[in-house]
Design a protein that fits this description.
The chain is mainly beta. It contains 4 helices and 51 strands. It has a domain of about 325 residues. About 5% of the residues lie in helices and about 55% in strands. The strands form 7 sheets. It has a 22-stranded antiparallel beta barrel. A 5-stranded mixed β-sheet has the order 1-6-7-4-5. The N terminus is likely disordered.
Amino acid sequence: MKPQSHPRSRRHCPTPLTATAIGAALLVSAFAAQAQDATQTITVTGIRKGIEDAISVKKNADAIVEAMSAEDIGKLPDASVAESISRLPGITVQRSAVTGRAQQVTLRGMPPDFGVTLLNGREQATTSASRSVELDLYPAELVGGATVYKSSNASLMTQGLSGTVDIQTVRPLSFGKRTIVGSYKHEMQGKAEDLPGFTTGDGDRASLSYIDQFADRTIGVALGVTKSKNNGNARPNFNTWGGWVADVDYNGGKVKTPGGFTTDIETTDSQRTGAMAVLQFKPNKDFESVLDVFYSKGDFSVKKRGLEGPLGGLSAGANDQGGKLINATIVNGVATSGTFENWKGVIRNHNEDYTDELNSIGWANTLKAAGGWTLKSDLSYSKVTKNAVRYETTAGLPGNAYNAADTISFSGFNGSNLADVKYTSGLNYADPNIIKLTDVQGWAGGAGVQDGYYANPVTTDKIQAIRLAAQKDVQWGPVVGVEFGANYADRTKDRVAKEGALVIIGGLNADGSVKDRLISTDMPGATVGVGGLTGIPTLNWDPAGSLGKVYQLNPWSDHDIVSKSWGVKEKITTAFVKGDVDTEIGGLPVRGNVGLQIVGTKQSGSSFLIDQSTCNGGTHQCSFSAINGGASYTDVLPSLNLAADLGGDRFLRFGAGRVVARANMEDMKAGIDFSYDSTENHYKGTAGNPQLKPFRADALDISFEQYFGKKGYVSVAAFHKNLKSYIVKVAQAFDYSGLLLPGAQPVTANDTLTRPINGDGGRISGVELAVNVPFSLLTEKLDGFGVMVNYGNTSSSVKIPTAGVSTANISSVTIPLPGLSKETANLRLYYEKHGFQIAAAARHRSDFIGEISDYQDKTQLVGIKAETQIDLQLAYEFGSGPLKGLSLMAQGNNLTNTEFVRYDIGNGNVTDRKRFGKSYLVGVSYKF
């Protein structure tokens, strides 16, 4: 028999699944408390309330979790959901290479795809080619909090290998009264003093939340809407062409010079509308129904205006014969300065625009039935569509290689500092009399014409799911409750790519053949800009909408373009059973759960197969046909979570289980993209693999936690994941004979195909330390002060082959696990008292290999340098008088103006440097 002093009985402490729902209520409980006698209750608000609510979730959970909570309705402690989550132990973010803002969450140093993001317990569709959720689709004002599950749980559907993030919206019946909150914030980005010579961006964000209860508190309604608009600052970028240093002929010998550069000024404009609605119906204690809807629509535009060109004597196209080095200063074999004559620079006027739209709906019902059973149902739907349009246009000297009249001079080169070299031009690139829209370099090849490029990829992802479950209290020895059920999810993801050359109208014949490959025209609406960090004046224009007016499209169906269109379907059926544990071990009260999931998967992938013999290099046209494939398999996933109460508010937690991460969806396509390599004299290709099975790992977690009531805690945790299988891209021998038509080059013994396969795994392990305490625990003189600090150290034996990595100069055959930062750390110091709030925060992660989308809309692995960001928050809330309910706030983000720096994985040379500048927010909110 259990002792009466046991801290938790099955009747009073919920299972982890229902603990999630209670956690959502805790996140907003600062507003749910009904009026009580002030002599009996001390109301905690603001920063400390958010901290205490999050601590309550962590302390009361059966699994090993982390949590973050909004300080008030629509008031997360940071500007975005991603930033708030990233301050939790063992969690980091990857900044967007375009905006500099936190975008993707990385759990425990593993790739973003190893984690899963849920909304109110339901898997969400994603805009990228992978499964990782881009959190900027979820406006912070509509989110109440989040729980991060680090150990597995049988009743939690769609778990990740690295962990599971569950974003939560509010539940209106958890509030004690009607609550209305409105807020407005003004933002300034990239302050001019941070980016001399470039403009400052600004923006506005407004939100309104309404929560109410009706029919004697049996019906609850929560509504939220937010609108943001941002005119981004101008940011300079510099690309060193992969860190390329050229060996150039000079005075009978070889000297080193920069190989080429691309530099531009980027401006971003964005706007987003978000809405949230929750209808909660609870007519009695036996039945509850919750319908929630989440909507988000964004419009995003990136404008790039700059200059690029080859150096080092390189001929970059059919219209360029390459420059010759003259007047150089040589130091130890390095041309520290010099001039290349016969140079042809290319003015870049590029637009990259997209719209995305997310619709997420869920309907959950809970019924307490006869015999002590609780029946649950959950229907959900999530769909996102991303429609992108990219214009790349080129301008410069028209004509062939023999009329180049320009020179490019460089100085300040030491052999490796490619991003710091100073360039000057001998030509006025802002003169409309000589600068024209044209195929400057002849990038289409000797017989083709390419005055620009157009791409229109559309990604659509849809998930439909239904879950049924039953739960009952039992007395089966240590098992005090049982829950079982099933979940069925149907997911379809498609990507359709339309691409081709922009050709000035009149440059093509009616049949699409080339009429005039050297055609040129004036630049409409031209203005004078600057060629990126070179400072060279250039002619600029806005190409948006120019298709059909300035350009005609020559659609391309080359093998590498057709392969970008694909589709993947998944049908996943999960049966689960879980028992809640409440017992004693060695005289210690122990609670937790033990469970099992059986997951059946049926998947298929589709794409296209190019008929290489039909390809025309001049028109870039190929014939192709559809190709399909698929697989079915079953995973058995046991899990165990135990929490021992050591007394004195100390807990020892243990978690074990088998976890999986499904393959990147683009890797599951069926198409084969190949061609004959005339340099190496054999066929080479790439492909997806619709038969891919998941990453699989056996996971162990242990955590010691010392709590100080609900005010603070100290924890030490360790984890180990033994990967039984890992997905790697490898180059293997392949027989192309069945894919070739008569007349094609014959197959060889050296033909290879690079594709993802299931291989052996490795080890991932780490330790996490966290301290979250108010200083009043030390002395009342420091009441109001507090600190949140955590540190994570992760190591891995996993190495991936470089065969599937598109990067230059890799000498080794493997690279480290993508996403892995050896060290991560967060620090937040705060003070809150008498309505005043101030918080200073720092976030750090060491070097790692990250995923980006390149200029061809392909996912690439790149090195990203270590970075530390520092933020500051100030606020004051009026607690009495006529202004009661009014709050004033100010935030400063990235106050150290931390750069976003990419480097070549092979040689370590910096390839890109981006400075986004500091950003500031000032705002006001009113609650009544």
